[in-house]
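Interim report, section 4.2 (structural modelling).
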Amino acid sequence: MKDVIALCDANAFYCSCEQVFNPSLLGKALGVLSNNDGCIVARTAQLKALGVAMGTPAFKVRDQVARGEIILKSSNYALYGDMSSRFMSVLEQFSPKLEVYSIDEAFVELSGFPLANLHAIGLDMKRRVFQWTGLPIGVGISTTKTLAKLANYAAKKFPATGGVVDLTSPIRQQRLMAITPVGEVWGVGRRIGKRLEAAGIHTAAQLANANRRWIRKQFSVVLERTVCELQGEYCIPWEEGSSANKHQIMCSRSFGQRVTTRQALHAALASFICRACEKLRKQQQYSREAIIFIRTDPFKANLPQTGRSLKLMVPSPTSDSSVWLQQLNPALDVLFQEGYEYKKAGFALVDLCSGAGFQGDLLTAASIPENTRMMTVLDAINQRFGSQTLRPASVGFRAQPWHMNQQVLSPSYTTQWPEIMKVQT
Amino acid sequence: MKPIQIFSRPLPETLPFYQSPAACGFTSPAADYLQDTLSLDQLLIRHPAATFFARAQGQSMKGAGIFDGDILIIDRSLTPGDGDVILALLDGELIVKRLVYCHGKPELHSENPDYPAIKLDSEEGLNVWGVVTEVIHHLR
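Predicted structure of the assembly:
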């Protein structure tokens, strides 16, 4: 029996999330900005039609925004994360085997369904995801991951497909690959794409027919695998489960303004520690090891540059924010230097463990989480009354210079009670 | 070396809290009968992935028991039918009304005599965001 895989991804995911809760944005030239409102990272079809490229800095479209021709939103990751998990759980209704590939796309195994039904199943996925979540998606179905990606590309590229392409038939595979530029193939980046073009390989079909040994010698075994997959041979392994539980939790930010004082850095890092531990508790894990770093802005070459990091260890695995907050001052004694303008700092919990497999410490009395109940109460209060309602004093009281610029942030419609949608009766 | 197993499963979100220390004495006669505590989520939310909350504003749905400031539970997975209270998209705005079919054509009715019904030309003119399944009304 042949493997069958669907690649489902949301169209302009961040923009679509905004539009679900604010329908007045439907049909508009809408863009979502990166952290600190830097540049455009998601665009609706209408914004693309205006010729605004991915990565365009916000200030370049300032005039069109002022005239109301373009609408920009700050990125709202609380909202996008929640909508992503809803999207994934609808896909799980179709198959027990799901690989969450990124926030807005997943591979879904459909092996075992009759081939003749695959297109209908794809349409059903698209329809159900839209009904349940309001998100428009595209579906590409084929026999390898690379071909499923290609099918999904076609579903987006050609509106006549209705957003669903079944590419299990070898004849259709050949036809599509003949008209697909090699740069659009999954795993072929821009750099490799250029080298392939130079070697006379312009289309996906030409790559599929290339000599495997030559590809391995000239490029890499990774690209050889891509060639095999284009030929219908399943070789990119399935990553079990979803990537929801990560092996490390990183919380870092570029600051809205540059930071020069130890006090401001302390407040910033304290808030990153709280955020990271909150995430850790949410996935019911513990950690005894963390990395903390601070650095200046490498793009300001005329200013003195520094970047330092430090590994922190605590006696036993914990998810208690206060344990890490106690480490912060000693860490800054090592890391902080006067006379620099800091641009970015971060805190990462590494080597995460669940309750199972946890090894107690011989020398400290209480091993697992003394402060669990206090942290549970803290999380519950912040969930109910708004994020950061209750926080350690070290995080600070006023708006801090290191806060992100989020001038046009939408409410956290699905994760904070005070911010749920308001609707007229 | 194999790590020592201390917990065999992840800690549940709410734990029954034992008031007495476990060291000695009789075990509670109720211990065998411990059940999960009641969950409002379980009662009110049938399709978590499709369920959203909104706060109602305005007086037009009083008759349906929806008052200004109430929290609505909206299930997008349900297919709206005649008589359902729905969240509809009208002219780029989300409004809460009762869906009523009159001679086969959809109408959006208020539950307050001061507000007239909104008649739609056809099924295509009806854009349903979700079906309102529950209302949470605070008494104090």
